[in-house]
Write a structure and sequence with these properties.
The chain is mainly α. The protein has one domain (3-163). It has 6 helices and 2 strands. It has a two-stranded antiparallel ribbon. Helix 2 runs antiparallel to helix 4. The longest helix has 20 residues, at 105-124. It starts with a helix and ends with a helix. 18% of the residues are buried. The model has no long low-confidence stretch (mean pLDDT 86).
Length: 164
């Protein structure tokens, strides 16, 4: 048994690595009345519908073709972790009263879109690993990206990038 699998068995905040056939949304995050089909990790399109219970909200999908191939697996794993993980209460205590352990489905989708935008920017610069992104490159991306939006939108983008 791997260290990650062992940790996942003893610590509910640690997730085991997903397999190709793993559900995109783990059962504990799907409301009992939600009957929307759940995608599989290996699929090119992930439905966010299992996270959406409001009948007035559109049933959105995440298209992995929009993420460059060299960075896709890295962003995909981060997205799956965001969808299925939750922040520890001890972490949330340091973040103030607005902090939440999990986001809603549409916010998760917007976060994934921002991560894909970063991945495309990195790919254009021949950077094929998130870990290879230097502080200088992070600052360059932030400067370019945040210069295109309002101050409120910039704050939201910063939170999304920090979550990555």
């Amino acid at each position: 048994m791997t260290t990650v699998a062992t940790a996942a068995n003893t610590d509910s905040y640690v997730l085991a690595m997903p397999a190709a056939a793993s559900s995109v949304v783990l059962p504990q995050w799907i409301s009992p009345g939600n009957t929307h089909p759940n995608s599989r990790y290996q699929e090119a399109i992930w439905s966010m519908a299992p996270l959406i219970d409001n009948p007035g909200t559109g049933l959105v999908k995440l298209h992995w073709k929009n993420c460059p191939e060299p960075l896709r697996d890295q962003v995909k794993l981060a997205a799956w972790t965001m969808i299925n993980g939750q922040l520890r209460p001890t972490y949330l205590q340091t973040r103030g009263v607005q902090a939440r352990s999990r986001s809603g489905g549409t916010d998760m989708l917007a976060t994934c879109h921002e991560w894909m935008r970063l991945a495309r920017w990195l790919h254009e610069r021949q950077i094929t690993s998130l870990a290879a992104c230097t502080e200088t490159q992070w600052r360059a991306y932030a400067s370019e990206r945040l210069g295109q939006v309002s101050r409120d939108t910039a704050a939201i983008i910063c939170v999304r990038l920090v979550n990555l």
